[in-house]
Write a structure and sequence with these properties.
about 230 residues, mainly alpha, two-stranded antiparallel ribbon, 12 helices, 2 strands, globular
Length: about 230
């Protein structure tokens, strides 16, 4: 298992398969290509995850990545927000996947970081580094925000920036993150729902608009296209 695929699996919602393939994940984390301190830290991250009850790990993931937008792993959320440009960027990314023989299921969002990492893990290293270099400013800020919240996931984002050979000014990013208002509190989430409800005009939002847990694609869902 390559480093990018491993990081995609570890950043994704922790499904039961994580614990079923623990030995494989530990072996992949013990990557001789990493500097020894990073190698030890990654092995420790995986071991800590495997030692955690799945329900506890899943709840922790939801609390970090599924509440508020600042920790969203939908990359275009950070670049385009709700603008029309986001839709075109999605189309362009899907076309890039298809060009190299990959298809996504209808419900999958192509800019979901773990899914992108699955794709890049199967591309030439230089190409993967170039892709990551272009989003390293987002990934670096996610690293800083995760560290500010005391999450061990900060390590995974930092490794991605380093893999892209980017310069991670963690101190400056941590200061920026510390000054940002938190958007994962109950008050912030309530305010966001109230703000977005206005977009429906005189009609109340359909009950299907309520969140139902993680709806993102997972790395294992990306499949090679069949002729």
């Amino acid at each position: 298992m390559s480093l990018l695929k491993l990081l995609g699996v570890l950043l994704d919602y922790p499904r039961d398969e994580i614990w079923e393939h623990g030995d494989e994940l530990l072996a992949a984390a013990d990557d001789p290509g990493l500097p020894p301190p990073r190698r030890r830290a990654l092995v420790e991250f995986v071991q800590r995850l495997l030692d955690t009850d799945p329900l506890v790990a899943q709840d922790g993931w939801l609390s970090l990545f599924d509440r508020g937008r600042s920790m969203s792993m939908l990359l275009f959320e950070h670049i385009h927000g709700e603008s029309r440009d986001r839709g075109q960027a999605m189309v362009d990314l899907i076309e890039a996947y298809r060009k190299h023989g990959f298809e996504l299921a209808a419900r999958e969002l192509p800019d979901y970081l773990p899914l992108l990492l699955e794709y890049l893990s199967q591309r030439p290293q230089a190409e993967a580094r170039d892709w990551l270099h272009h989003v390293s400013h987002i990934v670096g800020l996610l690293a800083a925000r995760a560290a500010e919240r005391g999450s061990p996931h900060a390590l995974l984002f930092e490794l991605l920036v380093e893999h892209a050979e980017g310069e991670l000014e963690l101190g400056a990013l941590r200061r920026r993150a510390s000054e940002e208002p938190r958007d994962d509190t109950a008050e912030a989430i309530d305010a966001l729902w109230e703000e977005e409800a206005v977009r429906f005009g005189n009609q109340a939002p359909d009950e299907n608009c309520s969140p139902k847990g993680p709806q993102h694609a997972r790395p294992g869902d990306i499949r090679e296209a069949r002729s």
